Amino acid sequence: MTNDESELLEAKAGNLPTRTATYDEVVAWFNANGKENLAEMFTVWKGSLDDARTPPLVAEWIQVSNVLWPELQAAIVGEKTPQEALDDAAEEAGYIMQDAGYY
Asked: By the 8 A CB rule, do 68 and 93 touch?
């Protein structure tokens, strides 16, 4: 599933490849096939790989995520200040992590 050919096939379908070399290949393919917007998008994605991070590798991440994102959305739409949203999310996430025995 992760050989060069499979990665390129998946990338042509719009999925992010795991091999960094595939980005250059698919960008060239998109440009050669009149899909410059996709070429630009994949170029941007490749440029952000150094800053990409996986979610925290704890079993409780989904629970924390379910607390975090609604709070962030509340800040984005102006229902709360950013600080209020972060404080509320941190409090709820703290309860989850405490219940799980992390502290």
From this structure: yes
With contact defined as beta carbons under 8 Å apart, do 43 and 27 qualify?
Answer: yes
13 within 8 A of 30, measured Cβ to Cβ: no
Rg (CA), the chain: 19
Instruction: Specify the residue for token string 């060069």.
Output: 4
pTM here? 0.53
Contacts of 71 (CB under 8 A, 6+ apart): 80, 85, 86, 88, 89, 92
Q: What is the pLDDT of residues 1-32, one digit of tens each?
A: 568 899 999 999 988 888 888 999 999 999 99
User: In the chain, what are the domain boundaries?
Assistant: 4-51, 61-99
